[in-house]
Each structure stands twice: as C-alpha cells, then as structure tokens.
Amino acid sequence: MTSDAELIARYDARVPRYTSYPTAPHFGALGAETYAAWLAAIPEGAELSLYLHVPFCDRLCLYCGCNTAVVRQERPKRAYATNLIKEIGMVAGLIGGAARVTHVHWGGGTPTALPADCLVAVMAEIRARFAMPADAEVAIEIDPTSLDGAALAALKDMGVTRASLGVQDFDLKVQEAIGRHQSFEETRAAAALRGLGVHSLNLDLIYGLPEQTPDSVRTTALQALELNADRIAVFGYAHVPWMKKHQALIADESLPDAASRLAQANVIRETLEGPGGYAAVGLDHFALPTDSMAKAMSAGALHRSFQGYTTDAAPILLGLGASSIGTLPDGYVQNTPAVPAYNAAIEAGRLAAAKGVALSADDRLRRAVIERIMCDMAVDLPRMAAAFDADPAPLLRDGEALAGFVADGLARFDGARLEVTERGRPFVRNIAALFDVYLRKGAAAPRHAQAV
C-alpha cells in the first residue's frame, strides 16, 4: 500500500476549496449595472438565502484569513450597520416581489463586534423587506470571548437559531502562538446559548497550527466533545502570508509539515467519529446522526457554498456587506472588499458590486460535478451530463486522469461513476480539481491553500 508520505509528496498541491465554481480567483470586473440587472431578473417570490459580512474584530488572530480588521471605535461600526440596512433595501427593491428568505448567515470577522442594537436593527430590516417563514434558519458566527449581556439579548431578539463558536484549539501554547486566548470555560459558557432559542451549536477547530501535535489536537477534540455540539468543522490552517500580511508573524519553520498535518487531521477525525459518534461529512465537517447536515448527506441533499457545507437548498444566495459573494441564476458577484469603498458606494445609492463572473453552460455542469464530488464523495459523470443535456465525453476524458488516484487506493472509477474512498477523503479537493478547466488556464496556484 502507498504510504501517507508518498501520497503527500504526490498530491499535496495548492488547489481550491471549491466553495464555488469557477472559484473567486477567476472572477473578473463586474459592475453595479450588471448586478442590478441580475437582481431584477430574479422571479417574483423566489426562494433565497442571505449572507451578511461584518469585517470587524475586537482582536486580530494571527492565523485568520478572513476579510476583517480590528476596529474598537463604535462610530465606524454604526456607520457600516446603517449601510447594511441601506443595501438590504436597495437589493430588495431591485428584486421587486417579496422573495422568500429561508436562511440568513452572519459571518465575519466577528458579527457580534457590531453594537447589539445594530444587529437587531439589521435583522429587523431583513424581516421587513423579505418574507421569512417561521422555520427560517438564522445562523451567526461568534467569538465566545466577545459575548456580554447585551450581545446575548440581541441574539435572542434577532431570532438566532444556529450559532457557530470559534474554538480552533484549547491548548495554551497554541493559543499563545496564534494570538488567540480563549479558555475552555469561556467556550462552555457560550454554549449556554441554547437557553436563548439557539437549537443548534457548531464548533470550529483548526489543525496545522504552530505548537500543535497529534496528542495536543486529540486533547482539544476530547474537550470539544464535552460541549455536545451538533456539528464540528475541522479546517486545515491555510498559511498565505503573501495575501494576509499578519500571518507573517507566524514563522514558516514553526508550522508542522504536511505529514504532521495529515496525522493531526486523522487523530481529530478518529476522536470525533469514535468516542464522539459523529459522522464525517464531506472534506472537513462532522455532524451528529440526529443533525440535519448528517441527514442531508445521507439523502444526497448536501450542498456547498461560500460558507462551506450547508443544508441550504435555496438556488440564490445574496451577499451583503464588504467582500461578500452572492450566487445568482446568472452568475457570481462579489462586493468590493474595502470598507471605505463599500460605504461610499452604498451612501451614494449604488450597489457595491466589484467582481464576478457570468456562468456558461459548461460552468454549470462542472459546478454540479464538483459539488457532488465534494459533498457525496461520488458522482456518475454520464448521468450528470444528461441532466444538463450535455455531451459526457469531456468529463469522461477528464476522468481518465483518475488512474493515479485509483492505483493509490484513493478513488474508484469504472469509466462512468467516480467514488472517493475513505482513504481518499483528505485528497478530495485534488480529485475535484481534475474537472476544473480554469486551473488549466494558468490559475495562480499560490491563491489556494495546500490540499493536506
């Protein structure tokens, strides 16, 4: 059998995470007029989801790859919230008929860095502008150290149903190395959100950080089990200091090599699946069998968006706020990432769209193929092509490149149906990349994280 070291040497390339296809590095200029036309073309009463980006934090964690900045003054936060409300009104007005919002996701940064009354006001504007059923999911990402009484009250008033708690690692040495101090007790206290109407809790863990070892990540995983989360996401640290300058404060030599990263990932997975009883979902998520994500996976109804794995089946995702990305029937659109430019556009009554891509027929087909590989670890290529009334030959030619993966025990391919094996799960991004024609056109590999 091929050793892990040999597999890493062969496959540990920089490949996309495939939260979209085409991926963000292939977006080009796309202005407000095009975005407005795409919004106006959305059918009346369409089902959609909303993503709101809050680019503020009270502290800067050295590992962070998000579009965020440390802002402690209240005035710029209130100005940003005011513009979020304006953008919601502009977008809703362009759509026209009352669209039905089934999911709202607050991300960042740290959404609760906004003043509590601003969070409530923005959520109230969403409910006023869109139709929201009683069972709509309202999810928010939370730094457990930032919760106070006002924030907790705001979350209840907002109707939050799912909260994602950033943990990363409980080891004190690791926390010191990444500039993020957060005790287990603080995290456990945040888990009390269930008493405010939050019926589902998620945890985020990271491997591949400085000072981490297989033993240390096992300890963190065992502590995480004590919190009884419904889902746990386990991400590999993406070290991209050329894109995120603050990551340069983490020395390259302090990071574990690819073999150590894989060992850490395997230990976490064994702990969550064994003592924890979680089911592996896709590349990097774990869910209790009773959770809707595990059920969606079993039913072949799991999806992947810019927020990662999701049960959200809405065909449209609208991004609100600086840097946010939306998915519309016509294509992808991204707001300008700079907060001053975003504020200026919204205050002038213009949409803040800056980049995007219109989807071709081939894009739609390959997006579906890649999503099923990432979600189901399997796809039938001729059947998928038939669903899009497309010739399967190009996909089958791409499938010929699976020979190496098959020989290494990472995949099975009978000439039509592709299946990723359990051993191949850590390399699923590499397998999905075989169907990415944009990577063959000279994509900038450094824009992507290492596969393992």
Mean pLDDT score: 94
User: What structural class do helix, strand and pairing data support?
Assistant: alpha/beta
Which stretches are low in confidence, meaning pLDDT under 50 for 5 or more residues running? none
- The tally of beta strands, per DSSP, is 20
Helix content range of the residues, please?
Answer: 25-40%
Number of helices: 16
Distance between the termini: 19 Å
Characterize the biggest β-sheet.
9 strands, mixed
Q: Radius of gyration, rounded?
A: 21 Å
Mass-distribution shape: globular
Brief overview, please?
The protein is α/β, with parallel strands linked by helices and 452 residues long. The chain contains 16 helices and 20 strands. 46% of the residues are buried.
Main features:
nine-stranded mixed β-sheet, 452 residues, alpha/beta, single chain, four-stranded antiparallel β-sheet, 20 strands
Overall description:
By secondary structure, the chain is of the alpha/beta class. It has helices at residues 4-11, 32-40, 74-95, 116-129, 149-158, 172-178, 184-190, 214-225, 258-273, 292-298, 339-347, 361-376, 381-387, 393-399, 403-407, 428-433; strands at 28-29, 47-54, 56-57, 69-70, 100-108, 137-142, 162-168, 200-207, 231-236, 279-281, 285-287, 303-305, 308-310, 316-320, 325-327, 331-335, 353-358, 378-380, 411-413, 417-420. Strands 10-11-9-8-7-6-5-2-14 form a 9-stranded mixed sheet, sandwiched between helices. α8 (214-225) links the parallel β8 (200-207) and β9 (231-236). α3 (74-95) packs parallel to α4 (116-129).
